[in-house]
Amino acid sequence: MQFDHILIRFGEMALKGKNRKHFERQLLENVQYRLHGFKKAVVKKTRGRMYVLLNGEDPHQVMKACQQVFGIYSLSFAIHTENDVEQLKEAVLSAIREEKGARTFKISAKRADKSFPVSSDELNPMLGGHILRNVDGISVDVHQPDVELKVEIRHEGAYVTAGDYRGAGGLPIGSTGKSMIMLSGGIDSPIAGYLTMKRGVEIEAVHFHSPPYTSERAKQKVLDLAQELSVYGKRIKVHVVPFTEIQQKIYRELPDSYGMTIMRRMMMRIAESIAKEEGALAITTGESLGQVASQTMESMNTINEVTNYPVIRPLVTMDKLEIIDIAKKIGTYDISIRPYEDCCTIFVPKEPKTKPDRDKTIAIEQSADFTEDLEKALGAREVVHIDGKEASKQTEDFSDLF
Ligand code: ATP
Ligand code: MG
């Protein structure tokens, strides 16, 4: 016998009262999306639980893929048998043999189907004895076993489960609304997107592109990052906004020192307009307090002034090294470090205001009219649809990420 199922448990979601059905349906859809490449696997839902029927797919590969789906708290391998003692004996033996390196074990049997003639108290020693007789170098430890084999006798058959693997946690993407992420080609914003998705938020992305100062390669890099993110959840729509003319106008018509602050206010306005059009109720950025001139408290306050949308900044209190750790784990780091030009790094004033004054910024900005320029940029945007199913994603062990 082999592991033929993966058992999926969801924690936090179960607390959500009336929404529970909606959350479960979304999780089912997301697991199906993530397992797209495993053609034979089938996902099914029972009360309060979910199973993947492997149908011959590799249990370990499927386990790794499931561990990346938000909304899952823990997972186990399982073998499904009929309610039959001989089959159960064979199943516990196969399960323990899969747990290589285990020196101690415990059997915990539970009989939900009372018509099954053997009680749980009788099953534990019966199945445990079978393992002891057939496996060398293993003993029972009921307090701190290396492996606990759970045996559950249900009406529809029995499950022998092994191992307790950690899931990605969070909530199923698509269950709590949508946010518009401002996605650059840097290290930070993809991680901000990933952490926003962790709380069940679907994301769309806006990217500001300044040809000919920024190249097609720089744009492609952002699309590649979106592709990497889309593996974890849903398809992602990326809005690529031409930003050159606005930048040139700021550079030409406004004082140098306030250029960076005003450029970021323009970005925020455009992000808000697209969010409104697309039904996103928040904006996400990769800002981290104090990291660069535009991310001082004064800058963030002045830039934020142009929108009353909630701005989600998952990285605001994180150090760069913590952000890099996540980037390496989720596979965005290698893309982010490809050399590229960002629109924010061209037209950078020699001495940008690190502590812009809010009222002064507003006064300076009003000396030029950007209404038409903003509309033009919005209208000229290119929309690219990214589908994570097409990504060839290596699966890593995520259990120590959070
Ligand atoms: P990142 O690594 O995400 O680029 P950063 O540390 O380089 O961040 P900045 O360049 O100051 O910081 O950008 C701050 C935030 O502004 C980014 O995290 C991102 O959300 C947004 N942003 C910057 N450049 C762009 C761009 N070209 N298009 C869309 N959003 C951008
Ligand atoms: Mg950047």
Spell out the blueprint of helices and strands:
Blueprint: E1 5-9, H1 20-34, E2 42-46, E3 49-53, H2 59-66, E4 74-81, H3 85-98, E5 104-111, H4 120-134, E6 139-140, E7 147-154, E8 157-166, E9 178-182, H5 188-198, E10 202-209, H6 216-230, E11 236-242, H7 244-253, H8 259-278, E12 282-284, H9 297-304, E13 311-312, H10 320-330, H11 333-336, H12 358-365, H13 371-379, E14 382-386
Parallel strand pairs: 5-6, 5-7, 9-10, 9-12, 10-11, 12-13
Antiparallel strand pairs: 1-3, 1-4, 2-3, 4-8, 7-8, 11-14
Adenosine-5'-triphosphate (ATP) binds next to α5 and β10.
Structure report:
The chain is α/β, with parallel strands linked by helices and 402 residues long. The longest helix has 20 residues, at 259-278. α3 (85-98) crosses α4 and α8 packs across α9. Helices cover 37% and strands 20% of the residues. The strands form 2 sheets. Strands 2-3-1-4-8-7-5-6 form an 8-stranded mixed sheet. A 6-stranded mixed sheet has the order 13-12-9-10-11-14, sandwiched between helices. The protein folds into 2 domains: 5-166, 2-Layer Sandwich (VC0802-like), CATH 3.30.2130.30; 178-387, HUPs (Rossmann fold), CATH 3.40.50.620. The structure holds adenosine-5'-triphosphate and magnesium ion.
Main attributes of the structure:
single chain; 402 residues; alpha/beta; VC0802-like; Rossmann fold; 13 helices; 37% helix; disordered C terminus; binds adenosine-5'-triphosphate
Rg calculated over all Cα atoms: 26 Å
Can you identify the CATH superfamily of the largest domain? Answer: HUPs
Integer average pLDDT: 91
Sheet with the most strands: spatial strand order = 2-3-1-4-8-7-5-6
What is the H-and-E element order? EHEEHEHEHEEEEHEHEHHEHEHHHHE
- In the CATH hierarchy, what is the architecture of the largest domain at level 2? 3-Layer(aba) Sandwich
Helical content band: 25-40%
Structural class call reads alpha/beta
Q: Please report the distance between the alpha carbons of the first and last residues.
A: 34 Å
